[in-house]
Design goal:
By secondary structure, the protein is α+β, with helices and mostly antiparallel strands. It folds into two domains: about 250 residues, Zn peptidases (Aminopeptidase); about 90 residues, Elongation Factor Tu (Ef-tu), domain 3 (Beta Barrel). The chain is built from nine helices and 18 strands. Strands 1, 2, 3, 12, 13, 14, 15, 16 and 17 form a nine-stranded mixed sheet that branches. Strands 4-5-8-7-6-9 form a six-stranded antiparallel barrel. Strands 10-11-18 form a three-stranded antiparallel sheet. The longest helix has 17 residues. The radius of gyration is 21 Å and the shape is globular. It binds zinc ion (ZN). The site of zinc ion has 5 residues, from loops.
Length: about 375
């Protein structure tokens, strides 16, 4: 289980896929879940279903977003530099001088870095300021706009993602890589769907990979219309809060403390009954978990829980340090706890349990 979790995490982490250009991630998802029945909505979200599931059972949506934060080519200067707009949330502090990969048209992968000014040439006071993203550009080594476009195939609208190799750290359970938000969710989704394939369930299990979460949870809107879920488990790589500068004594997202169960963030309140159900199941099964109330952020649950007449939804996460940067760190044992919890929940969400989540007229 652990070896497979590592393999999937590396594969998904190193696959480029900024919001709106999730093609390669989708390909991995479909390849890894061969044998499932696939359908897609019209934004590019994909649903993997099990043929053997009962048609009548409640529809349980297990979902993760495929996209990662990145940039889009906004302009190519005459001297061959690439100007950018962000796709998703970036703190400009973490962008300068980083290595990037530009996904050019015609499938060409172009390496480069974010241009920066050496300290020797920074003007008075400039070193203390944060450079805004619209003043940054990317150097792909092109001599001119013509070379970038005609020879290298770069076009406006091409996407750019961090160039970061997946690595195991000296701590044998910890890994460093890009895009763990949300490729760890994709890895959990894939491995859980595979582990449950062939098992007899009393619900209809729907594995849904969404697009464009990082630009406002957009794919989750159309994916919900496709999946029509009765309950949703949203798999994520949410921010850890056990690092310097955070309140480490009371961390709600510490590496190694287990799967994170999110009660709320500003954009979604998890169904209270679903929270109780999930926490009770985790406790009964002895699964390491940490509950969290977030002051910031938002996930696909913000779109899913408001679908149609509402869908009880909850976010299950593997706490990840330094998300929305080139280098994030997570602990694989948290992935294993998350997978155990997913397994237990999917088996427990039968018609009665799901009905109980929304039976509001019972006295
Ligand atoms: Zn994110």
């Amino acid at each position: 289980m652990r070896t497979e979790a590592e393999r999937l995490l590396k594969l998904y982490s190193e696959t480029p896929g900024a919001s709106g250009n999730e093609e390669l991630v989708r390909k991995v998802f479909c390849q890894e879940l061969q044998g499932h029945v696939f359908s897609a909505d019209r934004t590019g979200c994909v649903l993997a279903a099990r043929e053997e599931d009962p048609v009548e059972g409640p529809r349980v949506m297990l979902t993760a977003h495929m996209d990662e934060v990145g940039f889009m080519v906004q302009n190519i200067t005459k001297t061959g530099f690439i100007e950018i707009v962000p796709l998703g949330g970036w703190w400009p502090h973490v962008v300068l001088a980083q290595g990037v990969t530009l996904m050019a048209s015609r499938g060409r992968v172009i390496p480069g870095c974010v241009a920066s000014i050496p300290p020797h040439q920074l003007g008075e006071g400039a070193a203390a300021k944060v450079m805004p993203l619209d003043k940054m550009s990317i150097d792909i080594g092109a001599e001119s706009r013509e070379q970038a476009t005609e020879e290298f195939g770069v076009q406006l609208g091409d996407s750019i993602v961090p160039a970061t190799k997946f690595q195991q750290l000296a701590h044998p359970d910890r890994y460093l890589g890009k895009a763990f938000d949300n490729r760890v969710g994709m890895a959990l989704l894939t491995q859980s769907m595979r582990a449950l394939a062939g098992e007899k369930l009393s619900n209809r299990l729907l594995g849904v990979a969404t697009v464009q979460e990082e630009v406002g949870c957009r794919g989750a809107v159309t994916a919900s219309a496709l999946a029509k879920p009765d309950v949703a488990l949203v798999l994520e790589g949410p921010p850890a809060d056990d690092t310097p500068g955070m309140n480490r004594d009371d961390a709600q997202g510490a590496l190694g403390a287990g799967v994170q169960i999110r009660i709320m963030d500003p954009r979604a309140l998890s169904s209270r009954r679903l929270v109780e159900f999930v926490v009770a199941q985790a406790k009964a099964a002895g699964i390491a978990h940490q509950v969290t109330v977030r002051r910031g952020g938002g996930t696909d649950a913000s779109s899913i829980h408001l679908h149609d007449q509402g869908v009880p939804s909850i976010v299950l996460g593997v706490p990840t340090r330094y998300i929305h940067s080139h280098h994030s760190i997570l602990q694989i044992t948290d992935c294993l706890e998350a997978m155990k919890l997913i397994d237990v929940l999917v088996r427990a969400l039968d018609a009665e349990a799901v009905k109980g989540l929304t039976d509001f007229l019972e006295v």
